[in-house]
UniProtKB/TrEMBL annotation:
It comes from Roseovarius nanhaiticus. This is GMP synthase-Glutamine amidotransferase. Residues 49-161 form the Glutamine amidotransferase domain. One of its GO terms (cellular component) is cytosol. It comes from the Bacteria. Transmembrane segments: none annotated. The keyword Transferase applies. One of its GO terms (molecular function) is transferase activity. Keywords: Glutamine amidotransferase, Transferase. The lineage of its organism: Bacteria, Pseudomonadati, Pseudomonadota, Alphaproteobacteria, Rhodobacterales. InterPro entries: ChyE-like (IPR044992), Class_I_gatase-like (IPR029062), GATASE (IPR017926). CDD domains: GATase1_1 (cd01741).
Length: 180
């Protein structure tokens, strides 16, 4: 989905998929995009700790990093922010986000309408971040980390049909098995 979404803007880019096994060096690729996950950025799992170290190293070495949903949250945690369950529950479907003055430079001055599918979110900003967009439920839905990283809570790669399929896929009525 990401390659389909990004290909028109990056026609010369080469896309690689890297799963939980991280590259040997942050310099192995020109940039990284951390996508969504069924896991939470605050979980005490070795691969999540390793990924946070990798993100810090990449940013220190000026390798661009992008994040979507889990990736947005993981970058924030890696850089000193905090992520937690949203007190209001899940955010699902078409969502309106207001841009900040800095965000208007990235996204334009009009509200952003994007598809959301999350129940975790950033609750404390990492030092040095610039908030770009948010709303009452999710105040930090887009962040910039100087000119090295950009992350968003929403899913620009999702279609409405994909969100509907996610909702319908669990016959027990939960969005993710075991979370009812």
């Amino acid at each position: 989905m990401f390659e389909i979404w990004l290909r028109p803007s990056l026609p010369e880019a080469e896309f690689s998929r890297v799963s939980v096994e991280l590259p040997g060096s942050v310099a192995d690729h020109e940039g990284y995009l951390i996508t969504g996950s069924l896991f939470s950025a605050y979980q005490d799992l070795p691969w999540i700790h390793d990924l946070k170290v990798f993100v810090r190293r990449a940013l220190k070495e000026a390798i661009p990093v992008g994040g979507v949903c889990f990736g947005h949250q993981l970058i924030a945690e890696a850089m000193g922010g905090r992520v937690a369950l949203c007190n209001q529950g899940w955010a699902i479907g078409k969502t309106e986000y207001q841009t900040s003055p800095d965000g208007a430079e990235w996204f334009g001055p009009e509200p952003i309408y994007a598809l959301s599918f999350h129940r975790d979110q950033i609750v404390a900003l990492p030092p040095g971040t610039t908030p770009l967009a948010g709303n009452a439920l999710c105040p930090w839905a887009a962040l910039a980390y100087a000119d090295q990283a950009l992350s968003v809570q929403f899913h620009p790669e999702f279609s409405p049909e994909y969100i509907a399929a996610l909702i319908k896929r669990n016959p027990d009525g939960t969005l993710v098995p075991g979370t009812g």
